[in-house]
Amino acid sequence: MYRPHAWIVNIGNELLIGRIANTNAAVIARELTLMGVIVKRIVVVGDYLDDIATTVREAVGSADIVVTTGGLGPTDDDITMEAVAAAINTPLVLNKAALEMIEAFYRKRGLQLTRERLKMAYLPLGAEPIPNPVGAAPGAYINYSGSHIVVLPGVPSEMEAMLKIALNRLAHILPELCVAEEGITIEGIPESSLAPLLRRASKLCSDCYIKSHPKGHEVENPIIDVKVTASAPDCDTARSKALAVLDYLKKLIQGENSA
Amino acid sequence: MYRPHAWIVNIGNELLIGRIANTNAAVIARELTLMGVIVKRIVVVGDYLDDIATTVREAVGSADIVVTTGGLGPTDDDITMEAVAAAINTPLVLNKAALEMIEAFYRKRGLQLTRERLKMAYLPLGAEPIPNPVGAAPGAYINYSGSHIVVLPGVPSEMEAMLKIALNRLAHILPELCVAEEGITIEGIPESSLAPLLRRASKLCSDCYIKSHPKGHEVENPIIDVKVTASAPDCDTARSKALAVLDYLKKLIQGENSA
């Protein structure tokens, strides 16, 4: 079964100076993964037209789905729509549906459209605006040359509300696949001793992914979370596959301890 | 004054499936920024040799400083050293100093060197190991073709302890520059109304960077954090420059409100 590949592109200088951690990427990556998409890369760039356009162009050339966050607001450094348009060689145009959303937003609040507010109605030619249930700036969905580009704002509450809308819009290209994750915590075995057992357990299932996360110190107090991710057309099968790998791993550990 | 550019490359499937947020990148970005480095890009890739090597090669070609995290442990998917070696066309070799660190670590704990433990002593030819005060796997510092590559583990406590050592190692290329950040919170003005005032205030200082972060809703309850970052050879000057921009902005807001 083909699983679409995705890149996530997060735009904003606040991420590059470390003022905030990139929680948006984690939220989007988790949602995409649970829907059967393989996230291949996350790239953070600053509020610079060339950096954004270059990265979006590379993403569109590499992935089926590209999700961007940030740079949709009214200030001068909010230039994501312009950069996405440049990346796909498309003009930035006043989008009527986006204009209606923005007019309705400000009219309801008794405010005029200023130059800064009007700016948020400009989308790449051919884009569909994604309504923003929380703030003013619409997002955009663009189907370009076989790639699906989703442009979302950077404010987490807005991003999360619009991500749901965007994923519904992408439903037709998502695989009918359930991804299950099961885990165990193993105490008392250094990761370097667990490694050969993980290697053997991973051979049980070709659709499974096994990963160890050390939580304690390597030797004095080894605590290791082992997570197994498995995919299948239905969730019960996916879960069974993941649990089977963990059961086999437990047996290998018991065998090692009793040897 | 020339400020070195940096890329941060975070390696690990757990980031791409959204199990954890990339806090390592935020910590590294903040430390580098405070030392006068401009972080240009953060890239997250999975535990795949080609993806890591391609990204590190691109980073080395684009930045003065490349910091990687993750993939240094004893398991089979810990392949960062191999990928960095491939990226810079250098063989992976048993590093004597790294071997001594690892031997000492396990000897102290009464454990033998296994294949998995020995693996952590292989570094790209010419690399200097960075000692790990917390765990087993050393990091690496590599000076390659004018770029400075720092390879750190993914476990945050290990990464943070070793980042300090690595930044000392880089001290000779860091500018003598202090970066100051000052901020105010502005309530009651929508970001779209604040935008033209920010544009005017930003013209006061060419070394300053002004950024607005909406915290409340655009119109009902507008709360906006405005942060100004300024750099200068000494911290007092940097702070004064940032405060001057904020003072000017406050005057513009007062003028707007009384108009």
From TrEMBL, chains A, B:
Protein origin, superkingdom: Archaea
Domain MoaB/Mog: 7-173
PANTHER family on file: NICOTINAMIDE-NUCLEOTIDE AMIDOHYDROLASE PNCC (PTHR13939), NMN AMIDOHYDROLASE-LIKE PROTEIN YFAY (PTHR13939:SF0)
InterPro entries attached to this UniProt entry: CinA, MoaB/Mog-like_dom_sf, MoaB/Mog_dom
Protein name (Swiss-Prot/TrEMBL): Nicotinamide mononucleotide deamidase-related protein
Cited NCBIfam families: molyb_syn (TIGR00177), PRK01215.1 (NF002291)
Transmembrane annotation, as ranges: none
